[in-house]
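Whether sequence alone determines local backbone shape is best considered at the level of individual chains. When preparing material for the folding task, we compiled for one chain both its residues and its backbone structure tokens. No coordinates are needed to read the tokens, only the vocabulary itself. For completeness, the protein is quoted in full, as a sequence line and a line of structure tokens:
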Amino acid sequence: LTPLEFSKGIRFFAPACVLDDLRLRCLASHSRVADAFAAISVERRGVVLHTEGMREVLAELEMLEGVHVEAIVDLLEPHKEGGLTVSELIA
């Protein structure tokens, strides 16, 4: 079993692990995950974002590298029409 095959298997059988890369990026420079998003205004945190919008927010916060944004949005999107707010991501 190669490391790549192992990683793909974990993501298939434990989909929430896609959040771990983002969590670790947040905690690398902040004591809490929510603190990493403090620069985003309260109003902006409530806007429903699809993959590209969430990618832009994470890039702005310098947390995009190594994060699989599409997988995170696909896993967490609670809206019938799709998308995810920053507040929902933090929660």
Summary: Residues 36 and 48 are 19 Å apart (CA to CA).
